[in-house]
Amino acid sequence: RLALCNLGEQSCEYLGSVLQSENSSLKELDLTNNDLQDSGVELLSAGLKSSHCELEICRLSGCLVTEEGCSSLASALNLNPSHLKELDLTYNHPGESGVNLLSARLEDPHCSLETLRYVQLC
């Protein structure tokens, strides 16, 4: 659990590298309430794209993610659809297009994503 740890872009770059590692066996990552923003989520998504990534649960609640970050996540799920089962984006600003991009992954029979959590903030 790395919730509320004042993590940012640099931490996401490191975590993305870990997820790309051949020896990566991380199954759950909780980054709730960190200032990741879209730039950090993009770096994290680079790791999610890797065929070595085995992450099943990713919690990004309250991480200042917008449509741009959702686009990075959707792209990662498109390239590596086999492991991530749960994605939590509650308390972010995904916008309609961000929600639509990720919801489409739920409909893809090749994608293992089963649960997408979000709350549309005003």
TrEMBL record:
The keyword Repeat applies. SMART domains: LRR_RI (SM00368). Gene3D superfamilies: Ribonuclease Inhibitor. InterPro entries: Leu-rich_rpt (IPR001611), LRR_dom_sf (IPR032675), NLR (IPR051261). The gene is NLRP12. This is NLR family CARD domain-containing protein 3-like. SUPFAM superfamilies: RNI-like (SSF52047). It comes from the Eukaryota. Keywords: Leucine-rich repeat, Repeat.
